[in-house]
Specification:
13% strand; 10-stranded mixed beta sheet; 419 residues; disordered N terminus
């Protein structure tokens, strides 16, 4: 009877009060023992949670998987293929492996998928994830329903596997005036999960004595429909509600150059926040990182001057050939050496925390979760993880980074060898 009611709420609710009631019924964090009182010392990853299949019950089709002509060879949106061996629920596709077997896909909408991911985090020593809430998606009924379901699954999984969890609003697609909507959404989530009461939601990440919320996408010069005034309104609203704030900004935020709006008001907005995380994906590769890395030391010095913590971003590689149809902006993984170069570079600069982009992003080829060593054949070209490394190799590397960050092992620039 309970499961019947719960599924009914997932599918049919239209009002936040039903969602809150659903949360109270389904989430019990009382057994979680580990609390997360600071981002310092943690390796956290971004979690998209936005992949859907036509048969997963969401009504969203091949969401974030299909290309212009559907989800089939020659028309897809992802450059990595997941290793689905450990998923309880998977779905058939039109893709095949070289031996003729069907290539199956998971859905983020399934609770079992999220539990599998959080189990991996525990097994490999990754501390937790920032749960993405894309403003452009949660403003639609189907998007809100899906991301609420994924978040609820993640809250349960974080409790079971004692991983840290934090809400992150991706402002991409946000319009001027949407700050009030985001704050209202957060009010509902805070009431639902009691995230301000750490004893009742110990897995939720706190920082500087308050629950942390991240907002990503402030200060970019790519003609967004919102501006610094909207971001400032949002940050002020979060602070008034008793939250710490992590802000995601462009790479060249400090110099107000290149990918950043040349507006000094950005620095004023940043100074109201607790943590700063610049976006580095696609900005360098293994050959150019050495010249780029000096930015991290300068960023860190600026942040120390204004008493702001600094979360450097590291990513294993980047690719969006299937999404975009061309080979530009490809960043080779080089068997993990590129990922390790960034990790040790940030540690050597004195950084105390990491943001890994991303845990599950197959679209841009940045995922660190288990991806296939043998990929489907056909027109769509997928990046495979080298068989000698194993599908879990980047989870393992992230765990090794965590050991160095916690001081359990000395910083070593030499790529570790798996035995």
């Amino acid at each position: 009877m309970f499961m019947s009611l719960r599924n009914s709420f997932i599918v049919k609710y239209n009002f936040h009060i039903l969602f809150i009631f659903f949360c109270i019924l389904s989430v019990d964090t009382s057994n979680a023992q580990k609390t997360y009182n600071s981002y310092n010392g943690l390796v956290m990853a971004g979690y998209q949670g936005w992949f859907n299949t036509p048969e997963d019950g969401s009504g969203r089709g091949w969401r974030h998987l299909k290309g212009k002509c559907g989800f089939m060879p020659g028309s897809c949106n992802i450059d990595l293929w997941p290793d689905v061996l450990e998923y309880k629920q998977t779905y058939n596709t039109n893709f095949e492996f070289a031996d003729g077997s069907a290539a199956r896909m998971f859905s983020s909408n399934d609770e079992s998928t999220v539990f599998t991911h959080f189990r991996w985090m525990q097994e490999y020593g990754i501390d937790g994830v920032f749960m993405q809430r894309f403003v452009s998606e949660i403003k639609t009924k189907s998007g809100l329903r899906h991301f609420n379901k994924v978040l609820n699954s993640a809250m349960l999984a974080a409790s079971k596997y004692e991983r840290a969890i934090c809400i992150m609003y991706d402002l991409s697609g946000m319009k001027a005036g949407d700050a009030a909507y985001i704050l209202s959404d957060l009010d509902n989530l805070a009431a639902c999960y009691q995230i301000k009461a750490h004893s009742k939601c110990p897995s939720y990440l706190f920082h500087n004595g308050k629950p942390l919320v991240s907002i990503w996408g402030v200060g970019f010069n790519d003609k967004r429909m919102y501006g610094l005034n909207d971001a400032n309104q949002l940050i002020v609203g979060l602070k008034k509600r008793g939250f710490s704030v992590m802000i995601g900004v462009p790479t060249h935020w400090r110099e107000l150059a290149d990918d950043t709006r040349p507006d000094t008001a950005l620095h004023s907005v940043i100074k109201k926040c607790d943590i700063l995380m610049p976006w580095f994906v696609g900005r360098y590769n293994e050959e150019t990182y050495t010249g780029f890395s000096s930015l991290i030391s300068k960023d860190l010095a600026w942040c120390k001057e204004y008493h702001i913590d600094y979360a450097p971003l590291v990513f294993p590689g980047f690719s969006w050939k299937n999404m975009k149809g061309y080979d530009t902006m490809q960043t080779a993984r080089n068997g993990g050496s590129f990922f390790w170069q960034q990790i040790t570079g940030a540690l050597s600069a004195g950084c105390k925390m990491f943001y890994v982009a991303m845990f599950d992003e197959m679209d841009e080829g940045t995922a660190i979760f288990k991806t296939a060593t043998s990929v489907p054949k056909g027109e769509s070209k997928f990046i495979s993880i080298e068989k000698n490394l194993g599908s879990d190799y980047y989870l393992w590397l992230a765990g090794k980074a965590s050991e160095m960050l916690r001081g359990e092992k000395p910083i070593s620039h030499e790529l570790p060898v798996r035995r």
